[in-house]
Amino acid sequence: MGNSLAEIFWSATLSDLKKGYLYEPPSGEFVCLICGARFTKGRIYDLDGLLYEAEKAAQIHLETDHSSMFQFLLDMDKKYTGLTEHQKSLVSLFHQGLNDREIAARMDGVSLSTVRNHRFALREKMKQAKIFLAIMELLETKMQSDTNDKFIAIPRSARMVDERFAITTAENEAIIRRYFPEGPDGPLSEFPVKEKRRVIIIKQLAQRFDPDRKYTEKEVNAILEATYHDYVTLRRYLIEYGFLDRLPDGSCYWVKG
After folding, report:
1. Beta-strand runs (E) in 6-162
2. Residue ranges of domains in the chain, CATH in brackets
């Protein structure tokens, strides 16, 4: 199975994030960072009767299906953007091209000077973010050259998974080898007590579900029971950790995110 959308998203460069898609050399495809739609380089795509090469088709897909990468990024959780809801509202108004006086008039109880202060503060935050990004990229380069290891991506949809569960590729591989002795697609030997190990196992099990499919509870149970006798516990953790979602009555399950 190829890289998950979460892994692709978090490996994207700043330039890719702004565009909303990236080019994946191994597959020769342009990949939408929002939904994972793929456009193969060299193919021609018919969109509403007009023909486009792959990258242009990816651009049009982003505009027509998702409207704005700016809005998608702005709508992400505060733990990723670092922005409060009030700041998000201001940024959205800035993006519309309104001047400070117009923004103050739109926001009850907000003075012109407050809007100007926020604009200045956001520009300072951008400067800090650039420096911090450079520092962390240099650090990550050094760490990978020293240890040949890096952290794995956890899907953005995952709940109850925070910085306590920072998992390196080495840790992930070791746990998979230990608890899936017949290989990552084989049966689970046991379900450990330690939360971090459970996260790794549940993330691995989530890959057995097709993100383009809807499942009945019976189908979910069958997939999990073939892996481990306590399939009810596995199903519960897949939901609790946010790797799967379901309708309230449990009649339909799907890969979340």
Report:
1. 21-24, 29-32, 38-40, 44-47, 50-53
2. 5-68 (no CATH), 76-145 (no CATH), 163-255 (1.10.10)
Reading the block at residue 16, the tokens are 């890719």
CA-CA-CA-CA torsion sign (107, 113, 118, 123): positive
- What is the per-residue pLDDT across 163-199, written as a single tens digit (0 to 9) for each? 556 778 888 899 999 999 999 999 999 999 988 899 9
- Which residues, 6 or more positions from 113, have their beta carbon under 8 angstroms from its beta carbon? none
Query: DSSP states of 112-154 as a string?
Result: HHHHHHHHHHHHHHHHHHHHHHHHHHHHHHHHHHHHS--BPP-
| Strand segments (E) across the chain | 21-24, 29-32, 38-40, 44-47, 50-53, 244-246, 253-255
Residue 112 has pLDDT above 90, yes or no: yes
Cα separation, 251 vs 168, whole angstroms: 36
Q: How far apart are CA 63 and CA 51, in angstroms?
A: 16
Give the residue among 146, 230, 215, 212 at the shortest CA–CA distance from 202. Answer: 230
Q: Which neighbouring-strand residues pair with 38?
A: 31
Answer for the pair 228, 240: CB distance below 8 angstroms, yes or no. Answer: no
Nearest to 71 by CA among 89, 86, 98: 89
| Residue 146 pLDDT greater than 90, yes or no | no
Q: How far apart are CA 122 and CA 62, in angstroms?
A: 27
From residue 145, give the alpha-carbon distance in Å to each of 26, 137, 166. 23, 12, 19
